[in-house]
Amino acid sequence: MKYIIVGLGSFGASLAEKLTGQGNEVIGIDIKMNRVDALKEKITHTICLDATDESTVSGLPLKDTDMVIVAIGENQGTNVMVTALFKNLKVKKLISRAVNPLHENVLSAIGVDEIVHPEQESAERLAKKLCMRGVVDSFELNDYFSIVEVKLPKHYENKTVEEVQFRERYNLLVLTTLKNARVDSEIGKTKTIIDVQSVATPQLLLEHGDILVLYGANKDIRKFINS
């Protein structure tokens, strides 16, 4: 995967290092040369530029980039301007950082694909979510075991937990499932919220759009996702 990360503060820099360490190509961008210099030996590419300058940004390899992450946090106005610029340039997937509810509402109105909150979500968790296909969120219990939210694979729709045989096939435990619900936001747009279901039973029917909450070893989770 190829990523562009704009804003190399503590969160952006940490995310860039995590994604690079997982074998991805990462272009890190910041207007401050000291931040760029600090990462030039740690990630794939670093560039010092003003990301609010459309003529400069349009020269980046956007068509070959899978995801753009705007990690700017110290200046909300700059964050919004940069996010809107990348949205107008029609990048494949756009993620932006929000620091408060009003900021989040503005980003939602711009139409970003996803909003992250570094105060609640570590760079390590986000890197795992971005790199493991289908992972919605994750919580590491230690270096070997995690609890993850994973989108239900299409070929398991309309089957029960027992029929899928999560324990027998993958050595994983289904804790519960989550369903998406649509509600109206404060700015008049419809948004999706997560509705947590009860504790999973062997007879639980898995349906289209469900998110599985799984517990297991990281290697077994990867095996399930890659299957």
TrEMBL record:
Q: Which PANTHER family match?
A: KTR SYSTEM POTASSIUM UPTAKE PROTEIN C, POTASSIUM CHANNEL PROTEIN 2-RELATED-RELATED
Among the Pfam families in the record, one is TrkA_N
| Native organism | Leeuwenhoekiella blandensis (strain CECT 7118 / CCUG 51940 / KCTC 22103 / MED217)
Q: Name one GO biological process term.
A: potassium ion transport
Q: This protein's superkingdom?
A: Bacteria
The parts of the chain that form a coiled coil are: none
Q: What is this protein called?
A: K+ uptake transporter, KtrA subunit
RCK N-terminal domain location, by residue? 1-116
Q: Which InterPro entries match?
A: NAD(P)-bd_dom_sf, RCK_C_sf, RCK_N, Trk_Ktr_HKT_K-transport
Q: Which Gene3D superfamilies match?
A: NAD(P)-binding Rossmann-like Domain (3.40.50.720), Regulator of K+ conductance, C-terminal domain (3.30.70.1450)
